[in-house]
Design a protein that fits this description.
alpha+beta; Peptide Deformylase; 2 helices; 8 strands
C-alpha cells in the first residue's frame, strides 16, 4: 500500500469520464489499497480513482463512525429529496461551495471481490457518494455552483504553537 498524491485542478484527468473496470485483478486491488490509505491521510471522507491519476470507475468512502466502503463501477439508481450543503474537495484545496445534493441516494456497483452490491445512503454518506460519482464522470462540485458567489475561500487552520 502507498499514499498517492492527490491531483488538483487544472489536471485534465479530473475532467474526464473514467473507464469501467472490466476485470478486478491485482492492479485494481493495489489501487483500492492505495486509495484506502491515501483517503484518510489526505483528510477526505471519499476518494475517486481519478483524484490519484487513475481513470477507472473506483471509489472509496469512510464517513465518521462507519466502516470503509469500496465500490467498483458504481452508479446511482435512485435519488430523492434535495438539500443545500457546503462542500469542498481534495482536488480543489482551499475552497468550499454551497451546492444542492440529494437527501438520499441508492447506488449499485461491485465490491472489491466483484460481488454485486446495492447501498442506500442519506446525509453525509449520500453527499459523499454523489460527490465521488461526479468525479468518475469528470464533474467537480464547482460545476454545480449556481454562481461564483457560492464559492468561498477557506483558510487552513493555524498550526498550533509549540508547548500548547
Amino acid at each position: 500500500m502507498a499514499v498517492r498524491p492527490i491531483r488538483t485542478l487544472p489536471d485534465p484527468v479530473l475532467q474526464q469520464r473514467a473507464k469501467r473496470v472490466s476485470s478486478i485483478d491485482g492492479s485494481v486491488q493495489r489501487l483500492i489499497d492505495d486509495m484506502l490509505e491515501t483517503m484518510p491521510y489526505a483528510g477526505g471522507v471519499g476518494l475517486a480513482a481519478p483524484q490519484i491519476g487513475v481513470s477507472l470507475r473506483v471509489i472509496t468512502l469512510q464517513v465518521p463512525d462507519e466502516e470503509p466502503m469500496v465500490m467498483i463501477n458504481p452508479e446511482v439508481v435512485k435519488r430523492s429529496g434535495e438539500r443545500e450543503v457546503s462542500e469542498g474537495c481534495l482536488s480543489v484545496p482551499g475552497y468550499v461551495g454551497e451546492i444542492k445534493r440529494s437527501e438520499s441516494v441508492t447506488v449499485k456497483g461491485q465490491d472489491r471481490h466483484g460481488k454485486s452490491i446495492r447501498f442506500k445512503a442519506t446525509g453525509l454518506t449520500a453527499q459523499a457518494l454523489e460527490h465521488e460519482l461526479d468525479h468518475l464522470n469528470g464533474v467537480l462540485y464547482l460545476d454545480h455552483l449556481e454562481s461564483r458567489e457560492d464559492l468561498h475561500r477557506i483558510e487552513p487552520p493555524a498550526p498550533e504553537e509549540e508547548g500548547d
